[in-house]
Amino acid sequence: MSEALVTAVKDICQAHECDRTRMMDVVQAVNDKYGYVSSEAMDLIAEQLSTHRVEVESVVSFYAFLSSKPKGKVVIRLCNDVIDRLQGADRVGQAFVEELGINFGETTPDGQLTLETTPCIGQSDQAPAVAINDVIIPNVSSDKAREIVRELRQHMDPARLVKQHGDGNNAHPLVGSMVHNNIRKRGDLLFTPINRGEAVRKALAMSPVEVIRAVKTARLRGRGGAGFPAGMKWEFTRGAPGDRKFVLCNADEGEPGTFKDRVLLTELPDRVFAGITIAGYAIGAEEGIVYLRSEYRYLIAFLESVLEQRRKDGLLGRNILGKEGFNFDIRIQMGAGAYICGEETALISSCEGLRGDPKNRPPFPAQKGYLDCPSVVNNVETLCCVTKILELGPASFNEFGSDRSSGTKLLSISGDCKQPGVYEMPLGVTLREVLEQCGGADAAAVQVGGASGQMVGPKDYDRKICFDDLATGGALMVFGPDRNILKVAHAFMEFFVEESCGYCTPCRVGNRLLMDRLEKIMAGLAEPADLDYLKELGQTVKTCSRCGLGQTSPNPILTTLENFRPVYEAMVKEETQGFQATFDLAQAVAEAEKIAGRTSVHAHA
Amino acid sequence: MAKPKIATTSLAGCFGCHMSLLDIDERILALAEIVDFDKSPLDDIKTFTGRCAVGLIEGGCAHEENVEVLRDFRKHCDVLISVGDCAISGGIPAMRNMVPLQECLQEAYVDGPSVHNPAGVPPNDPDIPLMLDKVYPAHEVVKIDYHLPGCPPPADMLWEALVALLNNKPLDLPYELVKYD
Ligand SMILES: Cc1cc2nc3c(=O)[nH]c(=O)nc-3n(C[C@H](O)[C@H](O)[C@H](O)COP(=O)(O)O)c2cc1C
Ligand code: SF4
Ligand code: SF4
Ligand code: FES
User: For position A402, what pLDDT does the model report?
Assistant: First the structure.
């Protein structure tokens, strides 16, 4: 074991006070420094953090961005989600493979460059997108891919690949990214200029209970997907026994096709941080954590600078804005590439330095969350809405939106439409209006709510986007008339099979079986009864899974089956003999024929 | 009215499931009252004499002849039942699925510590059915109507299942008959 490694790991652990619950940071720092976490490093970390090696190893093996094997100095991760594939990601991938001379999952022989695929990196409106270490390159073509490799071979510095900056704060010196905001429609609430400090000042002039009442009066519901009333969640957390409480801001944004939180964090971080601060005041917390997906790591220096400025301005820290006794600060916790960590209890596990396994509920986070303390978990956009509610007053907020769903909703629109990007629309808007605005009126199908949402067709275009009808965390993926719906559903299933944490069987095994059966249908080997099987098994997986991932993962199949049944029916035919069309005797004996040097009497009859 | 017919077969199984069927003891007489046995190792009838109501399948498919027999059962039986874990999941024989076929044969017939095979090659008589690339559970080869789990399934379970099926009644197995821990 090298002395240098021992010292480096010791330093990293000590920088985190050898706190076992900061395992994520420790392991990531080691991974950053060496490109992987070696077996020796794991032993050292375990020793320094006074824990078992298996605890370290289980974290390293869980997260996609951590590795126990050496990787190249530069890792190229191409998004292979369905939207990118529609925009030619396969061709781009082929170009990378050819230019690098390696396949996906491999590292060049000189140990310099690694090529991988990754699910949605939150740039679906500028697909195909690729992440090169922390640098995002949107809109890559196959030519561009070749150029990237050639350039990297010369300087090995991903930052130098950035040629021109995107709009808004993407051009900020601390961001310096090629990413575009693509804000296509600014509504009257979120994308409005901000008067820094106003919302926190107004909140501090009220009592915490009054702040909660204001959020309730505004009828704010969670924007992360589930739509739970925010005020009620806060009230539970405030009422839960415990001296130490936490506000967790969910910036994991892992749902394929969702990218609106990225734009909020880029353009309105003050509104996000104000919302967290106000939540802290309301529930009686002194600590806030932003759980940021690692695909957005290019924003971290900028976000830290905004936090630092807020500390200087007295908007964070001790006795905020002179309010005696209200102390609050925020830290950013980086994720490491796991969709499941967007689920609130898995997010808490991850913040605690564990694998991103969801926890049993109850107890709910409001009773027993981060470090077993009462905790609020809210989405980035929800917290922005909180700030706006304080700025405007709850009654004005209530005027936006529909009866049961107040306010506006940010929609992340991608796919076959003329203007993909972020749209701020009043809740209650019809899908048709949205499609007209984004130039996707001839859509044959729209996936509402990301991979875990539902696929709807034209007969549903007059339905409303709101919590009581077409509920969505904000992702709308538009598919034109010549797209193959089954391929789309299959891509989503591949995603869930990959991202299932594996804890419970219905999800770990069930999703796999669903995907296999879908493949049978796509291969033209299925029968009508296979459609019933999909429906039945899909229901079983939804009912028996432990967390929201498995409870929603069959949706792409179940909703396409319901809304696009003729597509499935065209692929199946009755098999009269009762044989399985998927079993091919000739293929099954081929190897034995070769070994025995004779042909089967049965297979070729 | 002619009695309904039952056929049984052991594919890649150990005959344990058939032994379990015999374990219904004197009830075999009652069974013989209500059914006739057709193709089955129990009566040594080698080919189907006609259409059968029920086919019991022990074992999965390890070689081409298993596939032929199983397909023949599917053609002749109204209801096919996978009996026991080998039929249902491949069972013990499927442990070879982890190993490439060539290596498997080499180990079993040439290299294995207890093998005496002066010829040094695996047997290859034209009468020996060719092995499949792996062992397949029965339902991956033909459609199977019911599965009775166990290694082997208890005699009482087989009895209850047959009686229910032949009387067109729902099968209501007591918990003790389907728990295996
Ligand atoms: C598999 C899975 C992934 C999720 N990913 C996210 C996410 O990336 N961002 C998010 O805000 N909520 C996500 N959620 C929802 C959270 O569990 C939680 O409901 C939400 O953060 C609560 O905040 P809200 O009430 O403000 O919406 C996810 C849920 C599941 C089941
Ligand atoms: S449903 Fe899936 S993701 Fe959730 S706990 Fe079970 S295996 Fe893990
Ligand atoms: S299930 Fe058990 S008893 Fe039946 S054939 Fe297989 S090994 Fe033998
Ligand atoms: S970045 Fe590829 S689908 Fe979102």
Answer: 86
Distance from CA of A590 to the nearest CA of B (A): 8
Q: Report the C-alpha gap between A414 and A416 in whole angstroms.
A: 7
C-alpha distances in Å from residue A530, one per residue of A552, A553, A584, B73: 20, 18, 18, 22
Strands A454-456 and A445-448: antiparallel
CA distances from B126 to A62, A597, B105 (A): 51, 10, 16
The residue to which tokens 């796991």 are assigned: A338
CB atoms within 10 A of CB B120: 10
A396-455 pLDDT tens trace? 999 999 878 899 999 999 999 999 999 999 999 999 999 999 999 999 999 999 999 999
The Cα of A1 is separated from the nearest Cα of chain B by a number of Å equal to 36
Write down the ipTM of this complex: 0.94
Ligand 2 centroid–CA A74 distance in Å is 32
Mutation choice for A interface testing from B76, B78, B130, B146 by most A CBs within 10 A: B130
Q: Cα separation of A442 and A439, whole Å? A: 8
Structural domain of B162:
5-95+131-173
Q: Is residue B115 part of a domain?
A: no
C-alpha closest to that of A81 among A447, A514, A390: A447
Edge to edge, the sheet with strand A246-251 lists A329-334, A287-292, A246-251, A375-379
Domain tally for chain B? 1
> How buried is residue A397: exposed, middle or buried, by Cβ count under 10 Å (0-12/13-18/19+)?
buried
Q: Which of A318-322's residues contact partners 24+ apart within 8 Å by CB, and which partners?
A: A320/A200, A320/A204, A320/A277, A320/A281, A321/A197, A321/A200, A321/A201, A321/A204
Which CATH number do you get for residue B64? 3.40.50.700
Instruction: Out of B63, B130, B140, name the one closest to residue A583 (CB).
Output: B140
CB < 8 Å to B123, chain A? none
In whole angstroms, what is the distance from residue A26 CA to residue A20 CA? Answer: 9
Distance (Å, rounded) from C-alpha B160 to C-alpha B40?
A: 20
pLDDT beneath 50, residues of chain A: none
Contact A505, A499 (CB under 8 A): no
Q: Is residue B101 part of a domain?
A: no
Measure CA A561 to chain center: 25
Under an 8 A CB cutoff, do A578 and B101 touch? no
Compute the average pLDDT of residues B109-123.
Answer: 94
Hey, what are A120's tokens?
Answer: 């949605």
Does B61 reside within a domain? yes
Q: Which amino acid is at A24?
A: M
Residue-level pLDDT at A575: 85
A167 contacts: CB under 8 Å, gap ≥ 6: A180, A181
Q: What's residue B12's pLDDT?
A: 98
* pLDDT-derived band at B1, boundaries 50, 70, 90: low
Two tokens at A475? Answer: 């992702």
For ligand 1, atom 19, name the residue with the nearest CA.
A226
Give the pTM.
0.91
Domains and CATH numbers, chain A: 3-62 (no CATH), 74-163 (3.40.30.10), 184-398 (3.40.50.11540), 408-479 (3.10.20.600), 485-569 (1.20.1440.230), 580-605 (no CATH)
